Automatic annotation (TrEMBL):
It comes from Cellulomonas carbonis T26. Gene3D superfamilies: Tetracycline Repressor, domain 2. Keywords: DNA-binding, Transcription, Transcription regulation. It comes from the Bacteria. The lineage of its organism: Bacteria, Bacillati, Actinomycetota, Actinomycetes, Micrococcales. This is TetR family transcriptional regulator.
């Protein structure tokens, strides 16, 4: 009988690997084998830890959403007043470019999955609700909804536009979006 390897982080590593694979090849290209290889775990670990690909995808996207929510909460909770909250929103839009493309791809993959499979919509709805909750610390509910949509739209344009909006454009757009 072989020795059993103690690997308490295996499940978590699989989830992280799933996000990496999805960022590279999309949900449609992600397979148990590719994810197991990336996580450096035996293929059998996939079915031991998850009840199929949808279970793994749900766990991976829940982790991804939680990370996004935490980043949002940190930025907005540090703001004291509307002006700092506006600046925090601009910083969120123009933040870390090293992870921006990966995060945008994962966001699109999650949105596509949620559009096709209702079971994934709760992840996106919870993320939107958490974002709006943090925005409502500084803005009215109507403003929070507008700013939330602005963040999504400008993030897409920053990632895909040949001439992406700069900070000044974003600051001006925030001013037009919010009433004082």
């Amino acid at each position: 009988m072989g020795t059993r390897r103690h690997d308490p982080d295996r499940r978590s590593r699989i989830i992280d690997a799933a996000l990496d694979v999805i960022a590279e090849v999309g949900v449609a290209g992600a397979s148990h084998r590719a994810i197991a290889d990336r996580a450096d775990v035996p293929l059998g670990s996939m079915t031991y830890h998850f009840n199929g690909m949808d279970d793994l995808l749900r766990e991976a996207f829940m982790r991804f959403a939680a990370t996004g929510i935490a980043r949002f909460e940190t930025a907005l909770r540090a703001a004291t007043g509307r002006d700092q909250a506006r600046a925090a929103v601009v910083d969120l839009i123009h933040g870390d470019t090293s992870t921006a493309n990966r995060d945008l791809i994962l966001t699109f993959e999650l949105y596509t999955l949620a559009a096709r499979k209702p079971a994934f919509r709760d992840i996106t709805r919870n993320w939107m609700a958490a974002s709006r909750h943090e925005l409502e610390r500084h803005f009215t509910p109507d403003e929070a909804r507008r700013v939330d949509a602005l963040i999504e739209g400008l993030s897409i344009h920053r990632a895909l536009d040949l001439e992406p909006p700069d900070r000044h454009f974003t600051e001006d757009t925030m001013s037009l979006t919010l009433t004082d």
